Amino acid sequence: MISRSQTPTGARTACRLLALVAVMTHVGPAPGVVQGDQSGLARSGSSPVRTVFNVERPRDADRLLLVNGEPLVGALLNQRIRIRTAYGQIQFEQRVLAGLELNAGTNGLHSVFTVNGNRFSGFLEEPSFTLQPTTGGRVEVRREKIARIWFRMRPGELEGVPRGRWFGLRNGDWLSGRLLADPLSVVTARGPVPVRLAALASAAFNAHDLARTTLTLRNGEVLEGRLEMEDLPIALDVGPELRLYSGAVERIGDSAGGEVGESAVAPPTAQAVVSTGAATGSNPTNREGLVWISAGEFIMGSPNDEPGRDPDEGPQTRVIIPRGFWMGRCEVTQAEYQQVTGTNPSNATEDQRRPVEKVNWYEAMDYCAKLTQRAQAADQLPRGYAYRLPTEAEWEYACRAGTTTRFSHGDDKGYVQLPEYAWFTRNSESMTHPVGTRRPNPWGLLDMHGNVWEWCLDRWDGALPGGCVTNVALPASGTLRAARGGSWLYEGAACRSANRDDYSPSNRCSDLGFRVVLAPAEP
């Protein structure tokens, strides 16, 4: 750990001076073919997606929203859209598209939303988009200048789009299509068992142990074992054939013969941005600005030989995260903080897209409480859920995003790639920067390395527990709280996934902020 309470010089001293100057601051085979319903997300067999980003799709024209807030209306002339995803390059015809999210350019993941409710994330290949405005002429707009695109609704736009099974991926993507392997061979304790697709209701995959796959059959039987096939061949409903690594899949669902709720298929991540409008009243799954983090387990802390390691990063501990949660894609910005609390304690307030800083642990906790109250009043939270700070284990689990290296992008011993992912001493020019302007980690989270340190829910302890534990917050007592991620004021070693810091809960510093999680009120 690089701890302000134990490091007497260098960055610690600089932080103290800056703080003072800034006012202290988821077995019986039967014949037949499975035709799944997509009620788990958008009921695409009956109605297309009607709203994207909580805005109703236009019926007479396409709409672009530029990063600077300017809207453009007309007909998009790009007839095909290509996106490079973690599971292959996909090309879509415009007729199957409902919306695009470009996240302000190549520093963030792009997302494609289809008329049948699929979501694909990755990087768009198109350098620009051509619009024919309603006023006439043509306008070519660079990809980097576009925040979002809404495609107009077309009569009968689901005609010709088949209805397949749902695939919920661990990165939050939500796909539908037809499995091309029938039967699936499952190696169980009694040997290989062939399972015909017509008999399969759903499947759940263990992210860390591929020998543990749970298949639920339509007759109610449950089969556990290992799929002999690591790569699942799938024909997408709205695209080409893909081969999905089974470790990247969280659940496979199918509601043939009846409605299946979201929990039988996958996390409702994509519901945050797409809707058929079939539901009445408010939508309690509106998760704008959050990323779904699936349940799982990981090794917390760093190995003894990791360069830059500090003693409090061990002993390495296996941590079980029993429930998924949503986490803020970015650190809380000054604008967001001011909107909720009415104040902005930050040192530099010229650009409110920067992360809020000079906020102590109590104030971060108060922000979460007020945000919860606002969301509850608007009927936007699932019952029993609340916004809060992440536990240290949740934070490192989300930061690592399945990796075991020093950073989520690799070991990067010379910090050559780190400037692409983090604001730290080498590139920060001694200040914070607008959130989301560096590259994301594999799960789509931004600024997990650098920019500002992030408060955690736990009290700080000088060592990890070791062994195997379940995610739980250490009681918020004592004189210190945990913080993670490094900052603009620190060198690259402090931005490592395992690095820990400690602060007094009343501490204010111009490189200390936070991000939120949305989860059951008790972690």
Describe this entry's structure for a reader:
This protein is mostly beta strands. Helix content is 9%, strand content 31%. The radius of gyration is 24 Å and the shape is globular.
Q: In which order are the strands of the major sheet placed?
A: 6-5-9-8-7-12-3-4-10-11
Query: What is the radius of gyration computed over CA atoms, rounded to a whole number of angstroms?
Result: 24 Å
Q: What is the domain tally?
A: 3
CATH superfamily of the largest domain: paralog of FGE (formylglycine-generating enzyme)
Shape: globular
Q: Which CATH architecture of the largest domain?
A: Alpha-Beta Complex
Q: Report helical residue fraction.
A: under 10%
Please report the first level of CATH classification, the CATH class of the largest domain.
Alpha Beta
**Mean pLDDT level:** 81
Separation, N- and C-terminal Cα atoms: 24 Å
Q: What is the tally of beta strands?
A: 34
Condensed summary:
The protein is mostly beta strands.
Features of this protein?
523 residues; paralog of FGE (formylglycine-generating enzyme); globular
Helices and strands in order, then pairings?
Layout lengths: L10 H11 L29 E2 L2 E2 L5 E5 L4 E6 L3 E6 L2 E6 L3 E5 L8 E5 L4 E6 L3 E6 L5 E4 L3 E5 L14 E5 L4 E6 L4 E5 L2 E5 L4 E6 L7 E5 L4 E6 L3 E6 L4 E5 L3 E5 L20 E2 L14 E4 L2 E5 L16 E5 L3 E4 L5 H8 L19 H17 L7 E4 L3 H9 L17 H4 L31 E7 L7 E4 L10 E4 L15 E4 L8 E2 L3 E4 L3
Parallel strand pairs: 26-30, 29-33
Antiparallel strand pairs: 1-2, 1-23, 3-4, 3-12, 4-10, 5-6, 5-9, 7-8, 7-12, 8-9, 10-11, 13-14, 13-22, 14-20, 15-16, 15-19, 17-18, 17-22, 18-19, 20-21, 24-27, 25-26, 27-34, 28-34, 29-31, 31-32
